[in-house]
Amino acid sequence: MKLDRLMQTHVIVAGSGSGRRWAAEELNHAIVLRLASEFQGFCRELHTEAVDFVADVLSRGDHGLKVMVRFPYEHGRRLDRGNADPSALGSDFGLLGMRIWDALRSTYPAKGELWRRKLELLNAARNGIAHDDQTKLGVVRAAGWPLTLASARSWRAGLDGLVVGMDHVVKRHVQDTLKVSPW
C-alpha cells in the first residue's frame, strides 16, 4: 500500500531520533495528504458500489434505465469535487436515504463520534497543508494533533475502524431498503 511505503520512507529518511526536522516535517505532511486522499478514494468507491447495486436492482438489466437511476446519486457528488469530510459523507450517502453519521453512532456508540472528530481534524490538517494555511494548521495543533508520524498513525487507526464501520452500515442500509444483500 502506498501509505505503508510512505511511512517506511519516513523512518528511513527522517530516522527515529531527533534531527533532520525539515525532512520529517515534509514527510509528515505528505503522509497526511496521502491518508486523506486514500480515505476519500475508499469513500467514493463505497458510494459507487452502493449506487451500482441500487441501480442494478432497480433497472432489472435495462442499461438505459440503469444510467437514469444512477444519475441523481452521482451528479454533483461532493466526494468528486471536495474532501471526504463528515459533511460530504453525510450529503453523498444521504442521497441513498441514509444518515450515515447517525447509523455509525448508533452501531458504534463508543467510536462513531470519535471517528467523526478525527476525520474533521484530518481534513483540517489536509487543507492547511494543501493550501499552506498556517491558521488551519494551528487549529489542528491546538486540538492536540501535532503533525507528527504518531498523529498520522492515530488518524490512520481511526480511519481503519471508520472504513469497516462505513462498509457495515452502508451494506445494512442497502440490504434493509432493497431486501437483497449487496455484498
* N to C succession of SSEs: HHHHHHHH
Biggest beta sheet attributes: none
Poorly predicted regions are: none
User: Treating each run of at least 4 consecutive H or I residues as one helix, how many helices?
Assistant: 8
Total DSSP E strands? 0
Query: Which band does the percent of strand residues land in?
Result: under 5%
Structural class: mainly alpha
Broad shape: elongated
Could you estimate the helical fraction of the residues in percent?
Answer: over 70%
How far apart are the termini? 23 Å
Task: Please provide a brief summary of the model.
This protein is mostly helical and 183 residues long.
Task: Kindly list the characteristics that best describe this protein.
single chain; 183 residues; mainly alpha; 76% helix; 0% strand
